[in-house]
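Why does residue order matter? Because the sequence determines the fold. Keep that principle in mind as you read this record.
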Amino acid sequence: MKKYFFIFIVAPIFLFANTAPLSNSQDIKADLVTVVKSERKMYLSHEGKILKTFNIALGGNPVGHKKVQGDQKTPEGYYRLDYLKLDSSFYKALHISYPNTKDCCNAQEAGKSPGGAIMIHGQPNNQGWLKSFFKQRTDWTAGCIALFNRDMDEVLKYVKVGTPILIKP
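Structure:
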């Protein structure tokens, strides 16, 4: 009887006592969002490992760093995703902390505004059949980073406000 007690009761307790529960991958949050403009890709990563990859669309003039309002460029460099906008005109949006102090100084030297309201967002609301025009491989934003709405929902599962974003050429 003692033998069976040990095999079926005591042994399993020792066997599983030090095992941590497996974490659900959706419980893991990205600690960095990386955009590679030349690839038209956005990567969500955690501790250096890529969790998700998305195709993106950029501004109509995507090469180079955003310098002034209206240049249709997406900024380059390190920023932070500083707030979520659920009532966006483009489905849902995460605001990018552009402009920073350096961006403001550079625009001021040129005698212009640096612009702002740069976001990661979905497709335009209420566009009906025109939504097919707004595809990832067509650069159509004013300098933002655009995704399909279903991809924006996926991003919001993995990214929280405060996450850093690195935008590369």
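Strands lie at 32-36, 41-46, 49-55, 77-85, 93-96, 119-121, 145-146, 164-168.
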